[in-house]
Amino acid sequence: MVQSAQYFFRLVAILLATFGAATFVWSFGHHEQPAVKAAVKDATERKTAPDFDLKDASGKVVHLSDFKGKIVLLDFWATWCGPCNIEIPWFTEFQRKYKDRGFEVLGVSMDDDGWKAVNPFVKEKKINYRILLGNDQTGDLYGGVEALPTTFVIDRDGKIASVHVGLSGKNEFEAAIEKLLDSGPGNNIEARKKNGGA
Amino acid sequence: MKNLWTIPLLAAALGAQMAPTLTVAPLPTVKVAKGKTATVTVKASLPEGYHANSNKPTYPYLIPLTLKWTGGPLQMESVVYPAGVTERYGFQLPTDKPLSVVTGEFSIVTKFKVPADAPSGPAAQTGMLKYQACDNKACYPPKNVPINVTVSVE
After folding, report:
1. pLDDT tens string B80-96
2. What residue in B sits closest to A158 (Cα-Cα)?
3. In whole angstroms, what is the distance from residue A93 CA to residue A97 CA?
4. Contact B61 A34 (CB under 8 A)
5. Cα maximum dimension of chain A
6. What span, in angstroms and rounded, lies between the C-alpha atoms of A54 and A138?
7. What residues does B127 pair with on adjacent strands?
8. Does residue A9 or residue A51 have the better pLDDT?
9. Predicted confidence band at A5 (pLDDT cuts at 50, 70, 90)?
10. FRET pair for A24, CA 20 to 30 Å: which of A9, A124, B61, B71?
11. ipTM of this complex prediction, to 2 decimal places
12. B100-138 pLDDT, tens per residue?
């Protein structure tokens, strides 16, 4: 009888472990599907956005960590990227609309031709947010950014709240930004709720 | 260093959309006679669902398809690119012009002159094919594909 019980519990343990492993593997495959389904992750599930130091057009070195405490929309783009051109006016609008609420857009250009290509483009498109010159290392930090645009919405704690690969909907970005703005400074309302806090 | 563990997670997140690979068919050896002309046809193909800008893209900021010959015994006379097809894509604004692109299989034809003093025997003619591809939602960094043709000068 005791042996049967032991066998039963062992079997249940194996089944649970298998289910857990399968769920874990599945979650990697479906971690972030293309942008259409990108949603703001629960605060407890967010990963830290890797820090970087990149130069802006004036030559000033900018770190992502400089923006801790703000919600950051980090957009990897290039002048030759058609879908990026669609999103850029939205981001310009977001910068204008939300900057006073602790929000910042950072555009990381992946143009091989550098400022020679980027500066005229920024002027022509009347981009009102900070543009940095990226490189392969920066892309690698973020998991090997290949598809452009790829955009990360980062919360006030410097954690990635949503990832948008390829052209996404304006309303998706706006919903993500609004949600993070509404969660207020500290940005951990959901986590506090989970932990039984206020 | 503490953020290194996020890289595989982000990579998994971004794995859904990878850059397409342009495939170039193997090039046969070209037998040429000194003082004559020779033609090399580079046959390439893009996977379904992707396009690359043609050699004459619609907008100046787009990166064109180019084939540059960089070395070898032959003198390049002309390169004829495939005529782009004009297509509209989901990422374009209604006011945008259709894009001039290549899709699927296409060929680039190069005419060479064989110098009268070209050394006899086999040699490599090398070049670089550059393309920049997109799909309906995203674009991918420009890539270079080395082209290598064996020429046999007789």
Report:
1. 999 999 999 888 888 88
2. B3
3. 6
4. no
5. 80
6. 9
7. B69, B147
8. A51
9. low
10. A9
11. 0.80
12. 999 999 999 999 999 999 999 999 999 999 999 999 999
CA angle A59, A74, A145 (to 5 degrees): 95
Q: Tell if the pTM clears 0.80, that is, is over it.
A: no
The answer to whether the CB atoms of B13 and A34 lie below 8 A apart is no
Chain B residue numbers touching A143 (CB-CB < 8 A) = 6-14
- What amino acid is encoded at B47 in this protein? P
Contact B3 A166 (CB under 8 A): no
Cα-to-chain-centroid distance, residue A53: 17
Measure the CA–CA gap between A147 and B57, rounded to whole angstroms.
20
Q: Domain B21-153 classified CATH 2.30.30.40?
A: no
Residue at B119: amino acid letter: P
Query: What pLDDT score was predicted for residue A2?
Result: 47
Chain A, window 36-95: residues with a beta carbon less than 8 angstroms from a chain B beta carbon: 47-51, 78-84, 86
Residues A132-171 as b or e (16 or more Cβ within 10 Å = b): bbbeeebbebbbbbbbbbbbbbbbbbbbbbbbbbbbbeee
Tokens of A170: 């304006």
